[in-house]
């Protein structure tokens, strides 16, 4: 007690205080993520100018709303949109604060409508719940480019552009099927590590994967859903590797959770199978390029679609069509093809990869 | 600080005061008595058997055995194989270390909802490009400091700011998540340092290093809780903070220390998860607070504090990790897993309550 130890607490308090301040000062120096003198991160993919469409036209303002990034893919969407808009001297880019709250996103889009922007690019948190605000914009005469998560009604968008989840599964299944057939494996054990099972996109990916494997006479063996996080990927994979003492191939839906998946495979010391990733992160592409892990390919679901969406919004707002097509208008729907990236073509795709 | 030396301690309510306590009686005696009585609380009522580790955790041991049987029947050798059991233990190690800290906080009459995201924040802070450039020791130190620092903020606000623990740690959960997202830019920061990444792949005598870390933390926690004054004071304060205060315990300082301890455990867990997933990420540790609290509760610790065992909490963690393993081995969906976890929480608590009541 302090009366027994006069000054004891004071000295100790002073010492602890000094330690605390010193530790605090040292810690703040540790929050930087800027590489020290390293090369800058790969620049965002930008749609190449085609035909006469890159010529500066009428000055337009493009509004942009997307969820807050909780995943490398979403972060890349926002960066790509911004980078694409900066390519055009005739585009004023007007992004609203990203949010994961439906009500806030609706309010943000309404603000953009009230500002009277010339076109809107919207990646909704939830397609169904933002359909009505998409219709409001269209009724106010503002063309909406619906990015990836589709609205319920075609009345809510002028053009939809997005990835092909079913096609992603097909690409992965086809690659795995072909490779196993070439290797002459008779009854392969094929694992699948999905994203979040109750999302339609995960169900579509799995369906495409199963359908493609079936054309080879193969079926999915052990299958588990992680949660799109590295932690979930590690946990599920560590257990799944125990469930399957011998595997021939694995498809992991998502390269971000794939970091954890690869960690678990390495920790278990397993390398008798090959793995295919999903989405196409820069990290996964580098691993494919270096060819020193089980990851041999990844199927894309590229966030470069945000760059294209901004390019489309500009064309629609300026009343132009797409350069190489005969039509005078931008199409109403564009589905991206899911490319299979292997060691052979990874160099071409590396600039499109997003940092996880 | 006036509460530290009561000038004339009245008989503390609930301190089982026998006879009179004279004004100015040596406070040390009184304090020791409260600590002892807190430790022994329940002896007369429920009997010694139920208070022993095995007795109190009868329900849990039964559930674990049951799970083992289910595993052996449905998955056979794949479940009982040594690599699989080591996988279960490795998966249990991180949430296990966090649960040690949470057990202390709950026995001490508090609650810590912030653990998962404090771990996430520590993992992010320790794996920034800047931190990694200083090497593995600084990374570890950084994780421990951030964890303990967050715990200290929790502790000071609860003990000296007199805000309820639920609110303070909920606020910490939210702001730690925010800070982790801000520092990481919502990206997964890859661990490039080979020493840290190597922790998860290192094995001693065939057993992963993470399991040793888990075992050491549990052992230290057990000694601290059961064999030191610190542990006895934790029980005393959790059982009756007012009595403990009147008996001369520095309740506030001790409470703050409990949250620092919990934060420190999060810091240790942060390094473990950074190594296991080879990333630092703001998405780490989501809902860990509920997993940890559930493990503590089914482990027989009173949510109101004052009673509990560390071994019970660890058994609780093992039950949950084993369930996950069983479901993956049998290729069952995640949703069913969560239903089963919920059911097991209820069943384990029911069995324990029944055992306690039926025993004379």
Question: How would you portray this structure in words?
Answer:
- The complex is a heterodimer of chains A (356) and B (360).
- Chain A has 356 residues and is an alpha/beta fold.
- Residues 1-7 and 37-42 of chain A have low confidence and may be disordered.
- Chain A has helices at residues 8-28, 72-86, 102-115, 131-139, 165-183, 200-214, 230-243, 255-268, 282-290, 305-318, 346-349; strands at 60-65, 91-95, 119-122, 144-147, 159-162, 190-194, 220-225, 249-252, 274-279, 295-300, 333-335, 340-342.
- Chain A contains 11 helices and 12 strands.
- In chain A, α3 runs parallel beside α4.
- Helices cover 42% and strands 16% of the residues of chain A.
- Chain A has a 6-stranded parallel β-sheet, sandwiched between helices.
- Chain A folds into 2 domains: 60-163 and 303-320, Rossmann fold (3-Layer(aba) Sandwich), CATH 3.40.50; 165-300, Response regulator (Rossmann fold), CATH 3.40.50.2300.
- Chain B is an all-alpha fold and 360 residues long.
- Chain B has a single domain (49-358), classed as Orthogonal Bundle (ABC transporter involved in vitamin B12 uptake, BtuC).
- In chain B, β2 and β3 (207-208) form a beta hairpin.
- Chain B is globular, with a radius of gyration of 21 Å.
- Chain B starts with 26 loop residues before the first helix and ends with a helix.
- The interface between A and B is large, with 54 and 57 residues.
Main beta sheet of chain B: strand number and arrangement? 2 strands, antiparallel
Q: Please state the second-level CATH architecture of the largest domain in chain A.
A: 3-Layer(aba) Sandwich
Instruction: State the distance separating the first and last CA atoms of chain B.
Output: 44 Å
CATH superfamily of the largest domain in chain A: Response regulator
Summed up, the helix count of chain B is 19
Give the integer mean of the pLDDT values of chain B. Answer: 83
Uncertain residue ranges of chain A: 1-7, 37-42
- Strand order, largest beta sheet of chain A: 2-1-3-4-5-11
CATH architecture of chain B: Orthogonal Bundle
Q: From the alpha carbons, calculate the radius of gyration of chain A and give it in angstroms.
A: 24 Å
Residue windows where pLDDT falls under 50 for at least 5 positions of chain B: 1-26, 42-51
Biggest interface, residues from each chain: A-B, 54 and 57 residues
Largest sheet of chain A: 6 strands, parallel
Biggest sheet of chain B: strands side by side, in what order?
Answer: 1-4
CATH overall fold name of the largest domain in chain A = Rossmann fold
Order of helices and strands of chain A: HEHEHEHEEHEHEHEHEHEHEEH
- Percent in strands of chain B: under 5%
> How many E strands of chain B?
4
Task: Bin the helical content of chain B.
Answer: over 70%
The CATH top-level class label of the largest domain in chain A: Alpha Beta
